[in-house]
Write a structure and sequence with these properties.
The protein is mostly helical and about 210 residues long. The protein has helices at about 1-15, 20-35, 40-50, 55-70, 75-80, 85-95, 120-140, 145-165, 175-214.
Length: about 210
């Protein structure tokens, strides 16, 4: 049900991005954030935006993979292998919608970005990768306290990346909202697919380990 609602929300936004109401909302949201513009905040937002860049996220995926292998958490490893597919899915959606990026006046375009605007790649990818980490924190961390803390941190990173993209003038508000909805739907789908594969992998490795002892 949650997956259906996320997908429906994404589609609803995509259908409305050219309406006067949504265009006005997007403009006002950007202007509201840029009201706090300072050179120092520009630098901070640029740095925050890198948390959702593909290069950074590949490093994060690699570190998570190492942690899963060292912890012998084979059950969730196949799901992690599917998570980077969000990069391809997002690019396909961008080319399907072909929404232009924001241009100067009345907003400021502080950073440079290329390609189409909808959905936000940084938001989509962050929701997928950090969303998977949130899932791990809630399901694999033994300490409930530390698990909740890790989940909250992952969620805050996604939020910070989204705010930075709007502040920098490289995406509209609805771009990042749709990115989070789409990325969350994607990671839920790969968890649904990956968990049975993980169970098969775990059982196979357990059988192989028992056979070696004989």
């Amino acid at each position: 049900m949650a997956l259906v609602l996320l997908a429906a929300g994404f589609l609803a936004i995509e259908r409305s991005i050219h309406t006067a109401a949504v265009v006005g909302l997007d403009t006002q949201a950007t202007l509201a954030l840029q009201r706090f513009h300072t050179p120092a905040l520009d630098t901070l937002m640029r740095g925050t935006s890198y948390l959702g860049a593909t290069g950074t996220l590949w490093v994060v995926v690699g570190l998570v993979a190492v942690a899963l292998v060292r912890g012998k958490l084979w059950r969730v490893l196949p799901t992690l292998c599917l998570v980077p597919g969000s990069f391809l899915v997002c690019e396909a959606l961008k080319h399907g919608v072909e929404r232009a990026r924001p241009t100067p006046n009345p907003i400021r375009v502080i950073a440079e970005a290329h390609g189409y605007s909808f959905p936000s790649g940084h938001a989509f990818w962050s929701a997928s990768v950090y969303g998977f980490i949130l899932y791990l924190a809630l399901t694999q961390v033994r300490s409930r306290r530390w698990g909740r803390l890790g989940a909250a941190l992952a969620g805050l990173i996604v939020l910070a990346v989204c705010v930075s993209r709007v502040y920098l003038g490289v995406h509209w508000f609805t771009d990042v909202v749709a990115g989070v909805l789409g990325g969350s739907a994607y990671v839920m789908a790969v968890i649904w697919v990956g968990e049975p594969l993980g169970s098969l992998l775990e059982r196979g490795l357990n059988r192989a380990a028992r056979a070696r002892r004989i």
